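ARCHIVE CARD
CATEGORY: sequence design from structure
SOURCE FIELD: tokenized fold
FIELD CONTENT:
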């Protein structure tokens, strides 16, 4: 092996930390991030230990700790004092016992570097406190350097966290996190490195190594740990046990002859589209893998026990010919994998949908966004309202589970635009099974931001990052701070913000009216994998009825009870403004950018 600048047998632990408000699936798929990082480091000759602390926390560890100990993990002020050596002796001793339990139960062995991914970073105490306690324990016991990272959080966020928690040595915001992590390993070993997109601690001060905008040349390859995957395999009886226990038909479906595993995978993260609201820069060269490589890697996942693939591509069919060829080879190679992915309405026709179904598609997510043709043209959606309705109907006819995404409050939105969207939701209600509803956010990498004059908006100065409180409110997603803007010749920000809230409430009310809150947000991927495996596409009407009954109550993986208050779940899980009284939504609306 050539000299990489990293000492031989460097040992790295990669951790996916737990969080209270990530998703509410009864059985979530494993996270792909640490598997991708592991693949890159193993190729550098490192010995890598993958630690799914999310799974271990909710399955076991929280129950091994006492109630007071769990409460202390959530107590940000006490954790802050302990990490900074200011906690009273008794409190410090208690945190010492908690940290020892975490090390033991997570199986953390002596390592040279501890890496913690913040891929699902939310401003909530569990993620940050857990990570800080684990980092300090590993540093004290093994002398390891520690790094936190996720490209979705700006460098200012890492300055904040590294100042507040001296147990963190590096913070990575680079787009190509694997490359940045390799350079950190060189630096930690005292070798010459070319760090990028990283905030590092240097002699008690923090230094920013800029750049990091470079994207990986090809979509990443996950090297999943078999021991972790084994914990995500579930028999049908285990899956159904997470749902409405009063459903009368479950006993006839349970045969316990097969274990299900839904595994995330990506073959293209870049996007050829130029939708004005999206932060996926269409100017970047495609990182799509070859069709043959995709087939080989899907075969690897099948050999590991995968029964379904949760694609996290920008879209399955960004390129028509490649999508067609991939479907044909999935069929020819008899992969037999069910799969979920986004579908591009710009590049869609009935023959391609036919092939996608034959290749195993059981759920497709369509970015419809709006029912206003004027707004579709304005945001450069590249499709029409009629085309969206047509292919949703056809996809439903094929037996595919249809998921649509909607955005409320686009710049320049009028009352007529909102009425058109409400009318479309009504029109397609019989063909749609699941909805994602987002209030409009102005992202820094979007065309709206890069070309504001073209779209008739004026971007307002952002608040200084040092004024942001990463712990309040706990349900805010750190990377989703919206920038403020005025409509040129239209609404100023304050009035625009109020309109975004009103439009979101109107659309959520329409969805509640036609489908209930249960149809917003929760995908139930293991349940769909199981039901489609047993019943097939042709029996989608029966599957739809079963899902409605089963999801009347279900037990999210991070709760110890069956949940039936879906309104509360959605408001906390997705956006607290949507279902609150007007006076509260107005206040929260003013807080949308974190100011």
């Amino acid at each position: 092996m050539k000299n990489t600048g990293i000492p031989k047998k460097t040992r790295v632990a990669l951790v996916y930390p737990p969080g209270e408000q990530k998703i509410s699936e009864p059985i979530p798929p494993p996270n792909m991030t640490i598997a991708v990082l592991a693949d890159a480091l193993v190729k550098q000759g490192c010995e890598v230990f993958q630690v799914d602390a999310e799974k271990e926390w909710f399955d076991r560890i929280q129950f091994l700790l006492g109630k007071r100990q769990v409460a202390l993990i959530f107590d940000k002020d006490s954790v802050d004092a302990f990490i900074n050596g200011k906690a009273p002796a008794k409190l410090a001793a208690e945190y010492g016992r908690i940290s020892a339990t975490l090390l033991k139960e997570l199986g953390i062995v002596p390592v040279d570097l501890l890496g913690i991914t913040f891929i699902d970073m939310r401003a909530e105490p569990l993620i940050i406190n857990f990570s800080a306690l684990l980092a300090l324990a590993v540093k004290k016991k093994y002398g390891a350097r520690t790094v936190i990272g996720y490209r979705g959080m700006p460098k200012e966020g890492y300055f904040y966290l590294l100042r507040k928690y001296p147990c963190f040595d590096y913070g990575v915001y680079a787009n190509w996190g694997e490359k940045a992590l390799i350079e950190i390993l060189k630096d930690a070993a005292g070798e010459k490195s070319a760090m990028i997109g990283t905030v590092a601690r240097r002699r008690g001060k923090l230094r920013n190594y800029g750049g990091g905008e470079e994207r990986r040349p090809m979509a990443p390859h996950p090297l999943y740990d078999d021991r972790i995957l084994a914990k995500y395999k579930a028999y049908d009886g285990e899956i159904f046990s997470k749902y409405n226990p009063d459903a009368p038909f479950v006993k006839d479906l349970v045969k316990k002859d097969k274990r299900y595993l839904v595994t995330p995978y990506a073959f293209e993260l870049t996007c050829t589209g130029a939708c004005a609201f999206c932060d996926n820069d269409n100017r970047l060269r495609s990182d799509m893998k070859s069709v043959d490589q995709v087939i080989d890697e899907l075969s690897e996942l099948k050999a590991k026990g995968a029964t379904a693939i949760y694609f996290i591509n920008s879209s399955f069919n960004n390129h028509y010919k490649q999508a067609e060829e991939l479907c044909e080879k999935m069929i020819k190679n008899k992969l037999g994998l069910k799969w979920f992915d986004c579908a591009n309405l710009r590049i869609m026709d009935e023959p391609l949908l036919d092939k996608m179904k034959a290749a195993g598609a059981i759920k497709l997510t369509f970015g419809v966004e709006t029912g206003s043709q004027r707004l579709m043209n304005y945001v450069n959606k590249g499709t029409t309202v009629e085309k969206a309705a047509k292919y949703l109907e056809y996809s439903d006819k094929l037996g595919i589970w249809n998921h649509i995404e909607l955005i409320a409050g686009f710049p320049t939105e009028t009352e007529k635009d909102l009425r058109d969207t409400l009318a479309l939701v009504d029109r397609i209600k019989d063909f749609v099974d699941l909805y994602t509803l987002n209030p409009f956010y102005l992202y820094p990498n979007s065309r709206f931001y890069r070309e504001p004059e073209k779209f008739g908006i004026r971007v307002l100065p952002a608040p200084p990052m040092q004024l942001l409180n990463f712990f309040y409110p706990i349900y805010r997603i750190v990377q989703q701070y919206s920038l403020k803007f005025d409509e040129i010749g239209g609404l100023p920000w304050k009035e625009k913000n109020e309109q975004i809230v009103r439009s979101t409430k109107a659309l959520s009310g329409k969805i509640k009216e036609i489908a209930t809150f249960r149809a917003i947000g929760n995908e139930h991927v293991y349940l769909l994998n199981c039901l489609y495996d047993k019943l097939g596409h042709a029996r989608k009407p029966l599957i739809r009825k079963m899902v409605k009954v089963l999801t009347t109550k279900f037990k999210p993986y991070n709760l110890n009870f069956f949940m039936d208050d879906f309104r509360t779940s959605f408001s906390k899980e997705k956006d607290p403004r949507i279902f609150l009284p007007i006076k509260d939504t107005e206040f929260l609306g003013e807080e949308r950018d974190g100011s």
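CARD ANNOTATION: The chain is about 40% helix and 15% strand. The CA atoms of residues 577 and 588 lie 6 Å apart.
SHELF: design records, drawer C
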